[in-house]
Amino acid sequence: MQRYLFGNVAKLQVPVSMALVHNHVRPSRRLGTRGFRAWVQEPDRLTLCVCECGWAPELGQHFRTRARCPCEICRVVRRVRALLRRNAALGEWSVSA
Ligand SMILES: [Zn+2]
Ligand SMILES: [Zn+2]
Questions:
Q1: At a CB cut-off of 8 Å and minimum separation 6, what does 49 contact?
Q2: What pLDDT is attached to residue 96?
Q3: 41 C-alpha vs ligand 1 centroid, how far in Å?
């Protein structure tokens, strides 16, 4: 479940159990400008990558989505997930054949 955040970063509060995430657009201190979006959600290591862009350091660690992250780990994760999907598809196909 995602809850989008609005307004100024300085006024934000992030619940301890939630992960702070932003999209792939260049971060801004003001949420919602030029397509930049941030939200809180349940932490999920499979889909979230620790982001070290320096945005909002007062809010602690934050994440970005692996789907659009250029880092090497995310590239590997995307490749593995694609392979798993393809294998699963092949499996279903051979079972029903
Ligand atoms: Zn970031
Ligand atoms: Zn990454």
A1: 63, 64, 65, 66, 69, 71, 73, 74
A2: 45
A3: 15
